[in-house]
Amino acid sequence: MRGVWVAVLAAVYLLHGLSGQSCAKILAAPWPQQAGAPSEGEANPAPKRWYKGNLHTHSLWSDGDDFPEMIVDWYRERGYHFLAMSDHNILSEGEKWISLTEVEKRGGKQAFPRYQARFPADWIEMEGTPETGSKVRLQPLSKIQAAFEIPGKFLLIPSEEITDKGVHINATNIGEVLQPQGGASFVDMVRNNLRAVAEQAERTGRDILPSLNHPNLSDRGLSAEELAWLLENRFFEVWNGVEGDGDLGSVKRHSLERMWDITTTLRLTQYNAPPMYGLATDDSHNYHGNQKAKPGRGWIQVRAESLSTQAILDAMRAGDFYSSTGVELTELAFDPVTRRLSIAIRPDGEAQFTTRFIGTRKNYDTSTTARLDPATGEVVPGILDYSAELGEVLAVVEGLRAEYQCTGDELYVRAEVTSSEAPEFPTTESPVQKCWTQPYAWQVGPAAPRGDGPDVPGRERSGKAEPTLHLNRSGLGD
Ligand SMILES: [Zn+2]
Ligand SMILES: [Zn+2]
Q1: How far apart are the CA of 191 and the centre of ligand 1, in A?
Q2: 106 C-alpha vs ligand 1 centroid, how far in Å?
Q3: What share of the chain is helix, strand, coil (3-state, %, to 5)?
Q4: What per-residue confidence (pLDDT) applies to 449?
Q5: CB atoms inside a 10 Å sphere around CB 243
Q6: E strands within 128-197?
Q7: What domains does the chain contain, in order, with CATH numbers?
Q8: pTM of the full predicted structure?
Q9: Does residue 353 surpass a pLDDT of 50?
Q10: How close is the Cα of 240 to the center of ligand 2, in Å?
């Protein structure tokens, strides 16, 4: 047993990811190998460790209800290692002033006094008078970074939530504000905005990581098939902390976990493309009385060589992270030789843990059925139901350690761990703590993506794959 773990750790340490390569090279190689895959190169790479962070946060810079440095302070005090402030269609730079009336309207009577109590008078910039209307300056990210960042301990990453009607995409580490690009359909909107992000990254030499947010925010969002078909999108929120944003699905929508299994299966079988990686985020807006979008509900744990933006993004692109609403892993490894996925869970008092290994087998039942609305008996447009063999529970393990031995007939395997305990900040959509690993044990061949866009009742077909895509990487397990 010990020998196996030494081998696994050696494989993990040998993983060189994409660090050290130029941004141009990163852009030219959009499908990096997944964590755990053996690679050549560095003899003594730095040991990796886990960093906890939230990449989806709002402040008074857009529609949040608190000052950005109050929010940053909250996360840092609670042991987060990194945080991205991702306000809607804006970067927190330059001058922006807000009236105290507006602060009170958003955050209540205590919002400004709390700010005054936490920060010294010479930090808070005011203008105007109570008679003419007092205003307070929203501090730019650069000033907050200078005050709050601690090398190796706490990092602030610039971000923008590109908000294009129903399509919201976080552009983590974006350098220039990007206006929503629009489009005739949801697919077009996602594609146009991702293209604009890629163009900025290429032009500026800056690595930007786009991720699709809360696919179920509206009943009219992207279908699972469309999401599968947007091959250039590699990250999505499998859990978003906003109460009532559809994580669990509805008559008209698959749950986000189900959507993940559908998209992963379709990508691997229909499109010769790697799966999306799933994020949990807060999408926090409310830091006072309102319970709808509180901080501390969902985060990612990233295994990186150091606490730098590039190291975090490299590890995420390599799939070396998991998402959580409370469950913490002390070990996570897929051994490409033995093809065993192993996890260990940090004990938490009396909590009981259940691990479900979920995946789709290569010979799964591919049949689909239209969904009928039980209330009307009519076909629900934009959704197809798949057989229970897609995304089936392959094994269930109780306790602090869980292993799944692949038999070779799985398209992929991922793990979900559920605790018996409630999260610190629960929602009706997440009454118990969970964590989600990324999909493992998948592989895609060297060919270009194939096939036309999905054919879903009530939807236009989505057209051919993006001609610029190169599927020149194989996934874990080669
Ligand atoms: Zn959003
Ligand atoms: Zn948001």
Answers
A1: 17
A2: 18
A3: 20, 25, 50
A4: 63
A5: 18
A6: 135-137, 155-164, 167-172
A7: 2-96+138-436 (3.20.20.140)
A8: 0.87
A9: yes
A10: 9
